[in-house]
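Write out the bound-state structure for heme C.
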Amino acid sequence: MYFAKPYPVNTTTIPRLMAGLLIAGAAASLPAPARAQRSPQREPAACRSCHQAIVDSYEKTAHLHTSAEPTAGTILGQFSPGHNVLRTRVPGVYFVMQRRADGFYETSVDSARHDRRSARIGLVVGSGRRGQTYLYWSNGQLFEMPVSYLTPAHAWINSPGYQDGQIDWARPIIPRCLECHSTSFTLVDRGGRPEYLRSYVLGISCAKCHGDGRAHVKYHTAHPGDSTGQDIVNPARLVRERQLDNCALCHSGDRPRRGPAFAYQVGEPLDSYLLPSGGGDLVPDVHGNQVGLLERSKCFRASPTLTCSTCHDVHQTQRDVVWFAGKCVGCHDTSHHPEARRIGTRLVPDCIACHMPNRASHALQFNARARQVPLDFRSHEIGIYRDVTEAVLRGGAGGGPR
Ligand code: HEC
Ligand code: HEC
Ligand code: HEC
Ligand code: HEC
Ligand code: HEC
Ligand code: HEC
Ligand code: HEC
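---
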């Protein structure tokens, strides 16, 4: 999993030789990439004329901002002196983050070896609710940068899974990473060597869940009187398994690939593209398996229509746990809740805290400063957690909205 161990590098798509490319030559700046060619009209904009409210709210979501071009606005880490150095436990090994005329750079320094290496940030991954990781281009390949950013600590950190005090510029970005964190990338074979083209679409766009919308736009532009949506997938009309698959593409954790990357289309069975998850290690975490956890809960097993959309409207940012409790009350009459007397007026505000508890991340490994910051992830295994209940009743596990 992403934060637990290094990305699986040894895939069929990216040969290991990439690792060797960078190591040559100390003090070398990596080649500057050509400017990305973006599609002239980003997709949400193409939908705005007829779905303005959805597009306006969708444009604020973490999905849309989960990958971006590097700018002063999209990179959360600070470049000002006093805030732009990440020290490690090895004296003399540190990283400097700089804003230069042509972009934003990370530089690693190993003083003892007189080694200094820089690369320009090429892409930003993560909307930054919890953090961001940065990628750099080299000969059509993307690599992970050694320094990431952790939002709750407001600090640069060793990229997740990297050893504190070691310098590693050689971790290629496998397609699966971009499949979950973008709309599309195109991979081409250059004489046995895979390269990403620059015609990518960053952020998760409408197409990822609705399919290609061009025919739909064309039809409705030509037939303004037709009020039934044509040539577009509405996931609400799919059977439950296919609805879940649409989210499971990215929300069922680390699953081995069976079909090609970026090929899955909403409505298809996901098992043709990814092997089923082992199902063993279902713990909530940053690259956790919300689908698998939800499927284990009684609510899911006993309600044939319960899906992610029962609670989530992905076109909006939803952070209010009291609002979510309203979804539970839609199915559960809590007037005879077995613990009602002990819980009192906290029944609704703490509903989510007791039955979908936050769990501390096990996967994150940091440098010392960032280790002080607890990172929690919501369990989607809705159930009875007596230890959590006692902590909530003592006021320990934090009830209300985060
Ligand atoms: C020219 C107007 C127009 C544009 C542009 C447009 N739509 Fe629609 N769309 C409609 C109409 C009309 C409907 C049917 C009424 C409704 O559900 O709002 C619809 C319905 C939908 C539905 C529901 C379909 C169903 O079966 O329930 C989805 C999903 C959708 N549009 C997505 C999109 C996406 C994604 C885009 C951008 C790629 C887009 N639309 C652009 C007019 C448009
Ligand atoms: C299987 C799909 C998947 C893969 C593969 C994946 N991610 Fe993620 N990633 C997610 C999801 C889903 C979240 C949000 C989880 C949550 O909030 O509970 C996330 C969260 C993150 C975050 C935190 C974002 C924030 O705003 O707080 C970062 C950074 C990140 N991923 C980077 C990466 C990088 C870099 C790779 C590959 C090298 C990668 N991820 C691979 C699905 C994936
Ligand atoms: C992460 C997946 C996802 C993305 C991205 C997404 N949608 Fe949806 N959309 C859904 C789901 C799921 C439904 C069905 C909701 C339900 O079950 O009621 C839906 C329903 C709709 C509908 C039907 C009417 C309605 O209000 O429910 C429209 C229109 C729509 N989406 C437009 C868009 C547009 C435009 C974008 C891009 C700006 C977009 N969607 C992005 C998942 C997505
Ligand atoms: C293409 C991959 C992808 C698909 C498909 C997808 N998600 Fe996500 N989702 C992500 C990633 C990546 C993040 C983390 C975004 C970030 O913060 O950088 C995320 C974040 C979220 C969040 C947290 C958002 C927040 O602001 O706290 C929710 C909730 C969510 N997804 C629900 C869904 C649901 C429901 C579906 C299916 C209708 C779905 N997602 C489909 C990749 C995906
Ligand atoms: C679509 C309807 C639906 C929704 C929404 C729903 N549940 Fe349930 N839930 C059920 C059903 C049905 C059962 C099984 C009842 C039974 O077996 O008697 C259940 C069981 C439970 C149980 C008993 C679990 C156990 O292991 O014994 C708890 C606790 C629970 N739900 C809490 C919640 C909470 C909290 C929420 C909101 C986060 C929620 N439910 C949302 C339908 C739902
Ligand atoms: C019964 C209601 C319910 C259902 C069903 C549900 N969720 Fe959630 N989800 C929540 C609540 C409550 C939160 C916590 C919101 C918060 O704390 O801001 C949440 C948070 C999330 C997050 C952010 C988690 C984190 O800790 O960062 C993701 C990702 C997510 N849900 C994905 C999904 C997916 C995918 C599905 C379908 C498999 C799903 N959810 C089904 C209620 C639900
Ligand atoms: C302070 C923690 C806490 C809060 C708040 C809380 N519950 Fe519970 N809930 C529990 C515990 C503990 C049990 C098991 C009680 C028992 O079996 O003796 C339980 C049992 C349940 C059950 C299954 C038992 C039954 O027959 O009703 C459901 C359903 C349920 N809760 C739903 C909810 C919903 C919905 C909310 C919020 C709207 C909520 N609970 C708020 C702790 C809590």
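---
The CA atoms of residues 84 and 236 lie 46 Å apart.
The longest helix spans residues 240-251.
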